[in-house]
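Record format v2
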Amino acid sequence: MTLDIGGLTVSIGGKEILRGVDLRLEAGRVHGLAGESGSGKTMTGLAVLGLLPHGARVSGAIRLGERDLLTLPPKELNRVRGGEVAMVFQDPATSLHPMLTIGKQLTEHMRHHLKLGRAEARARAVELLGKVRIPGPEEAYGRFPHQFSGGMRQRIAIAIALACSPKVLIADEPTTALDVTVQAGVLRLLRGLCDELGLAVLLVTHDLGVMSAVADEVSVMKDGLVVESGPRGQVLREPAHAYTRSLLDSLPDAELR
Amino acid sequence: MSDTPGPPPSGGAGPSSTRKEPPSGSAGPLTTRTSPRRGAHPLARFLVRRVLLAVLMAWGITLVTFVLTNLVPGDPVAANLGQRALGDPAIVAQWRAEHGLDQPLWRQYLLHLQGLLQGDLGTSQQSHRPVSQDLAEFVPATLELAGAAILVSLVLGVAFGVVAALRRDRLSDHALRVLSLIGISVPTFWLALVAFYVFFYRLQLTPGSGRVDAALGLAPAVTGMQTVDALLAGRWDIFSSAVAHLVTPALVLALYTIGLLTRFTRSAVLEVLGQDYVRAARAKGLPGRVVLFRYVLRSALVPIITVAGLAFGSLLSGTVLVEAIFAWPGIGQYAYKSATTLDLPAVMGVGLVVGVVYLVINLVVDVLYGVIDPRVRLQ
């Protein structure tokens, strides 16, 4: 399934955050969304799930298959959230509830969306933990988030996002809060899951190094607009827009070539 | 978080570059520590530690109440003996010897402590009964009053706070803010007088003073709390009369705590609502009710029970005025009478009870932290 964002504008308190964003996510492809802080990358991701801050005004269209997520009634939007479109957040130290077990956080939405029984949900959760390479998934099931390292927590967050077999995954800076040594593993995992499950992935990052490692398409945002978009090789090697060039120039040479 | 266990090794699956595992040398002890039954142990150990600490503090309370009571300027002899008896040194000496006041202070303390261990709090110089007997009569009455007040406050305060937070900056939020400010700032004794005047004297909706209708008599004492004892005895008439007597003073007492808890719950819930994990829960498509109860309230409960515990303590020790106005035979009235007559054993008894009640409340709050938040247990 494709996710098609067209002419998306968002304003909060009279200030325009997004000024007409167009993006297209395809199944089995990772679409990297780059840009500096405040350029609107994260807001684009949140808008897809209808999680914009209180008082935000949205227009445009976010089409998932036939439906426009922006006009979906709340109940149906809730079925899409977690069920068809899932999200991984930046900092796994804060995006998992510290007082609920990994198992609870892995199974609750499965039981809600897929109407699974306790035992079925548990079996699937353990399988998912294995899939994101958490050692000892059976034991991990009953533990709490603080008993895992940052990289492990982000893998768990990815498992939670994948629990209901979504078609689209929004990953908002999924490696920014992690150690450099751990980042590569999480990115490889995302890339692998995208290929294996045919996920359409939106990878939001300000790190062009991350982008060059896993993205198929790259879009660059500045001041609430997509200024450049295209296949990775093209955007990163022959940038057409001055802003993309300046982003690339700010990288240490070795990273891209 | 020193004993945070690392994940057990899994035979090398997965890219090793992404793991932050302890060296494999520690694999043995790790696997034994992560047996399924392990979960019960930290909570038990946590409990034992807290109880031991509470016992130590209880001893500290006996010392403080004893010293403070004996530092009070004023002569219990003069307060208890008549003018004529005071003129007779023999009577004064005999009275002092009877009450152990001729002993050196440290010896008096040891005797006091020895008595405490045997459940003997001394004899009240006013009622001429054992202080423990007096307390057994008055403490449950206050516990009943303050308990009812804190229950009402928790239910209403938390509900109001949640509503105010969810409807932030809307009319209901503003209305609740005004109400809670009124609750916090209206003096309790004034409210008690007004409530008594309006509901009893004017509208005759509530029975007046005391704990039950005198005509019904009291339920056989088990806990000393009329509502509970009446239920235990199956006496519905006494129960309804006891509840009717309890409602007004409990609500009067509760109003302040309701206001307090509304404010605290509102800010606690607002803080949690801004957390990443709440947004993550929404992103999972969980129904709003589940997000509120499982994700938001669970975290918000930690500051709420802290405040509720402290509020309960101050309810217990701050009921004097309400007890006086509603003629509620509780510990507040007893403390006041004992203090004004320099009835030192009774004063010490009250001090000890209030101190121990605070200890128990803190213990319960600590244990609740451990139940709610696994990170507390494991520390």
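The radius of gyration of chain B is 27 Å.
Residues 52 and 195 of chain B are 44 Å apart (CA to CA).
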